[in-house]
Specification:
Length: 192
């Protein structure tokens, strides 16, 4: 019997070479890093927008509150021979027409127990029919006086104003003709 030739292991098949996944791993790491960076960058870009939206909502609520309170005061006057309420009790007198205590609260005042709106004292019990230009007569306005039934002069308008509008600080002023508008804190609200 013949012996088989000895096996030559030098020519044995070599196992398949492992392919390097380095490129794939680097791409995955870059993608994960990019996602993390986006997760940090997006809020940084959006938060100023959210802050602007919050300020805009505050201004809108302030305008709405002053407008509704002003209309309540004017409805009161129509029921009382066109006379405005007595300034010392104006909130009490007009509450039946406003019906929500929170409407007397200025959103620019952080203390929820304070109100921040005032009636002009020199218009106390005045007749609307005798006003020459009610569109130029500030009636209800943001005020540094924050108690219930606050009343006083336009010198109690907050300086700087309670709200930002562009680069200016403004206050909300409601007029005797039922309009309300933002007035820059450096402008007399009686001027058009």
């Amino acid at each position: 019997m013949e012996t088989p030739p000895p096996m030559d292991f030098s020519q044995a098949p070599t196992p398949p070479q492992k392919k390097s996944n380095t490129t794939l791993i680097v791409l995955v790491v870059i993608c994960i890093g990019g996602l993390c960076l986006c997760m940090l960058a997006i809020p940084a870009l959006l938060f100023p927008a959210f802050g602007g939206a919050k300020e805009a909502a505050k201004r809108s609520l302030a305008m709405s509150n002053v407008k509704q309170v002003g209309v309540g005061v004017l409805i009161y006057s129509s029921d009382y021979d066109d006379k405005l309420p007595i300034a010392d009790v104006w909130m009490d007198a007009s509450f039946q027409f406003v019906r929500k205590k929170e409407l007397f609260h200025s959103p620019g005042v952080n203390d929820l127990n304070a109100f921040g709106l005032a009636m002009r004292k020199d218009l106390s019990a005045q007749s609307l029919t005798k006003m020459v230009a009610p569109e130029k007569e500030p009636l209800i306005f943001d005020s540094t006086l924050t108690q219930w039934n606050a009343n006083g002069g336009l010198d109690t308008l907050p300086m700087p104003g309670r709200y930002r509008s562009g680069s200016k600080s403004v206050n909300v002023v409601g007029y005797a003709d039922s309009r309300a508008k933002f007035v820059p804190d450096d402008k007399d609200p009686r001027m058009p």
